[in-house]
Amino acid sequence: MKLINKESVGRRMPVRILINTIFKGLFFLATLFGLFVLAILLYRIFTQGIGYLNIDFLQNFASRRPEEAGVKAALIGSIWLMATVAPISLLLGVGTAIYMEEYAVKNRFTNFIQVNISNLAGVPSIVFGLLGLTIFVRALALGSSVLAAGLTMSLLVLPVIIVASQEAVRAVPKELREASYGMGATKWQTIIKVVLPAAIPGILTGGILALSRAIGETAPLIVVGIPVFIAFLPRTVFDTFSVLPMQIYNWTSRPQEEFQSVAAAGIIVLLVLLIFMNSIAVLIRNKFQKRY
Amino acid sequence: MTAIQSITEKIKKDSKLMNKPIAEQKEHVYETSDLNLWYGENHALININLDITENEVTAIIGPSGCGKSTYIKTLNRMIELVPGVKTSGEIRYRGRNILDKSYKAEDLRTRVGMVFQKPNPFPKSIFENVAYGPKIHGIKNKKLLDEIVEKSLRGAAIWDEVKDRLNQNAYGLSGGQQQRLCIARCLAIEPDVILMDEPTSALDPISTLKVEELVQELKKEFSIIIVTHNMQQAARISDKTAFFLNGEVIEYKDTNTIFSNPTDKRTEDYITGRFG
Hints:
The complex is a heterodimer. By secondary structure, chain A is mainly α.
């Protein structure tokens, strides 16, 4: 005797298939929603800002007159900031991830550190700004410099980089490590020749996400005391500077209508910079994926 | 009893083919005395006493979870990668106790190579895979590396298949080729002993046969210890066989003897397929 009644299974069939179709549609709508909003945003920004976007806009410093205003100081400042944040946060982040995954013994203490790293990723950015102000700007007397801002931003993105790198390192198959150890390789040789090359695509994905966040942040920089109106470029990491999001924020808060369009042009520059950074990461990633 | 008879006949046939060297005094590469091993509270190896002779193939058989893999991983101290492992007793490799902390695991593993259950080539070119060992040991001379790679690939009977594509990714090889590549990689460090942890369990029968033939070839130069849960394989390729059960060595004898005339009832039950 059969336990399953084929007839009632058959009766339920159309309902199950209908539910399946409904959910497929719902998920598609969810995807569409994000794309739709993004498209509207981009359309508005481009139609508004494109008129102000020319070579002068890139070459001029900020100005009180909208037709003369430019992003030179902010653009170069953002590049300086990235050039500081990227090496500091990647070295510290990847180093921490390797220690946690490859060297640290799993015990209550390392568990505690792990939980805290994950929690730090959720701390509001303004809190990191206060930390930067206390430690880097005041205690270490770095002032509102590229270095102080860079260190603050590095702290902000560090948890994200650590967690992403840990995931990437953990995803390297244990068999590859065994093969390396089995031939008498030391832990360091195994890490540098087997683990890191295999983990680099994952590390870069996390790193770029983190840096993209850093390039768009304003809150911690306001606390650290980065000026918005500046008419010179930093020469060293100890000079003060400004960045694109601060400049954009400043423009949007101006009363004149024209500055809204200038801000839109600034946003376009910021987006292009972001796309440029992402492409570099994709290139590096592809290079490693081809070889490995 | 027919199962035993058929295995015995197979052994007789095989041993004729093997043209055994005239009995000579061979040294022990490994001498294990009173080895005990615990994973936390779990007593995984119990009072193991086992001597392994050089230039022979020693097979370790037994059901899953009997400790055979644990034992072979102790021989090159790979077992240390598992957290919470404790050992007592001695394993002397060429007279020196390898469980002594002053014996560096890295040093031991340059003498004792290992081939794993699943083929595990690096995601690098075929050449780089084989050159990996010599390179980490500090050999930089390109010509010497070329020579080592060719010799190792020939030694693992895979040279003819890959000589034209040494710079291609090793992942493009078939499973059986990958495993022979891993054997070549192991040969490249010129080890004294080769440990094989179920090297054919992930391979098809033809690739398995190739690896088995290779093992026969390799034992002229190396001492080989092979874990297998394929009893026919142990009977075909090994000189001595150890039967493990629940962390203990039940029987350790010449392969011919253990398969034709096991002393212990449990060994007999296992090799005739009554359990495990």
